[in-house]
Amino acid sequence: MTLLQVSAVHKIYGKLTALENVDLTVEPGQFHGLIGPNGSGKTTLLKCIAGAEIADRGTVTFQDIDITTAPPAWRARRGMSLKFQITSVFDGLSVYDNVLLSLQADQTLWQLARSRSRRALHPRVLDVLGQFNLADRADDLAGALSHGEQQWLEIAVAQARNPKLLLLDEPTAGMSPEERRITGELLKPMKARCSLLIVEHDLDFIKDMSDVITVLGQGQVLDHGTPEHIEASERVQEVYVTRV
Q1: What CA–CA distance (Å, rounded) separates 80 from 89?
Q2: 3 near 31, Cβ under 8 Å?
Q3: Contacts within 8 Å (CB) and 24+ apart, 100-109
Q4: What is the pTM of this model?
Q5: Which of 34, 163, 180, 234 could disulfide-pair with 172, CB 3.0 to 4.6 Å?
């Protein structure tokens, strides 16, 4: 079963066509890269998939269910999670509590009032923090983390509830080369648990991470295929030489 199917999606803002007839497929256990010059429609497409924007035409299907107009919270309950480019962790809370809050989202008021959820979720919080090299920072305020560590924390929060599909919008933005390398190492083990759709400007990173890459240009799909196919594509090379 295909996990995510985007079919003939259009998104128009006034006289601007941000997306035109876009098709994209993500399979279970697949890391799918999404690249393109600035203004090509990458983030708009992620928003249409996550529900932050609604496609004007076309369909978005997730686990064989049409979610084109479904609200973001419904999509999240079905197993979709999103991390945007701008980090949005709670600076005034501890690293531990940032992850705990994500896990408590499905708890009832009765469970929260009886203070049982923190105790029950403690092993899971520590496991998630360990996966992202943050276990030794659990008690620190999130605002005290470095930029790279905050990005890792937000990815940890996004995947804490075991989504089936994780959408990442430029997860290595602002990172040093070493932090980008570590980010790749932290993400790769996730393939056993969920699929990724990753928007990135770092072409070396996306080629190393992705099973399949889709290239957008001016709101349209320019090419699609393996990293080797995309690297050899004359059409993609032309776009990156003339528009980036």
Answers
A1: 18
A2: no
A3: 100/125, 101/157, 102/157, 102/158, 102/160, 102/161, 103/160, 103/161, 105/161, 106/161
A4: 0.89
A5: 180
**Would you report the helix, strand and coil content of the chain in percent, each value rounded to 5?**
45, 25, 30
Rounded CA gap, 231 and 124, in Å? Answer: 40
Q: How many residues does the chain have?
A: 244
pLDDT for residue 109 is more than 60: no
- Supply the DSSP symbol for 141: B
Pairwise CA distance, residues 178 & 145, whole Å: 16
Please say whether the beta carbons of 129 and 160 come within 8 A.
Answer: no
Residue type, 149: E
Segment 42-56, tens digit of pLDDT = 999 999 999 999 999
Beta bridge partners, 231, equal none
Straight-line distance from the first to the last Cα atom of the chain, in angstroms, rounded to the nearest whole number: 36
